[in-house]
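TOKENISE THE FOLD
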Amino acid sequence: MEPENCLGLLMTRKRKSQEDSSTFLMDELNEDLLEGVLSRLPTSAFFRLSSVCKRWKSVANSSSFKLACSQIPSRDPWFFMVDSHLNQSIVFDSAEKNWKKLNHPPLLQKKSNYNSMPVSASGGFICFRNSYGNFVVCNPVTGSCNEQPPLDPALQSLTFHAIVMSSCPNKHDQSSYKLVVVFGELPKLSFRVYNSSSGCWEEEIALSKKFNEDDKSKELDDSTEFDSNDDSAVYFLSKAGNVVATNMQRSPSKQYSSVITSKDGVEIVHFLSSSGSIVACNLTSKCFIKYPRLLPVFYEYSIDLVECGGRMLVVLLSEFFESASLRVWCYDEDIRSWQQIAAMPPSMSHVWYGKNVDINCVGAGDQILICLSSAEISSCVMCDLAANEWIKFPKCFVDGEAIKFMSAFSFQPRIEASL
């Protein structure tokens, strides 16, 4: 072999050796490191781990990998979408900005749970209520489900105002949660709590009406406020000549429109009464109050509650001066009044004027997903409170047809959350 050819061969081998030494191989990681790396992947990637190689398939099915996943503090939320077809699972992945169709949980396909309505969500779980009034909690990612013990038959006939879930995760457990139901006729309200740790419903607890000490007008008897049929339907003629009722006509999945907040160990459940007023139930001190109205009772509007960053916020769609306005409000406890914190640009909200729109909203961190629907049009819009951005979701098509979503529930996609 010629000298120059030998030199070329040596240089080629040297260059190849240098390249090989700088290449990082995942197979060189030990099991703990590999699980730690894979646990930080987006949840949608977990479904593809099994098809990469035998080792990754083994990791994906191991209990230690699920433990590694549970140590990830939070994940970008998925939004479980609700439309007229209840026996399907469609989600919007906020990390990948796309739609996904999941396998509907097997337990919800049973005849007794067919057409179960999602009513609340927290952590990695969504709570459904079947036609018998019983609750089924499921992880929509894995399909695992658990039927809760039924409430007393006598309670099923009462008016339910709020159904909320509260996850109680710790560093090694993403499976603990509480389910709270508030029921009764104002002003006689009570609540019960289901705790997954004990696996049973706790005793019923009555809530008392609380008055503001410095509000002299509230020193009247309880009956003064509630016996005036404040929560009964009042009918009036709108500017368009339509007969309008003041009681809230809500999407079935948001008829228990309610959220739970927790601060300094104090848990408060907020819900909308049938007339659109906001009621706050303090589960710690066992009392409730009613917030002042944002708009007069004789006014056309659509309203919903969300929880964002530990705060209860109100999303309100109303009509002023021949234009629709969608705004987000927060109640300031110090000055005891509502403060506007965000507003949809008029160029986006004007299209909803005169459309008799119903809004159903859900919060996730600093984001609010707003489902706007009417007989004519429907849309989903994301409000980013931190960036002050309003982004319209792309349409979701199933079998070539655009789906009209009525509402949504936010949850964290966690494969380790088991039932």
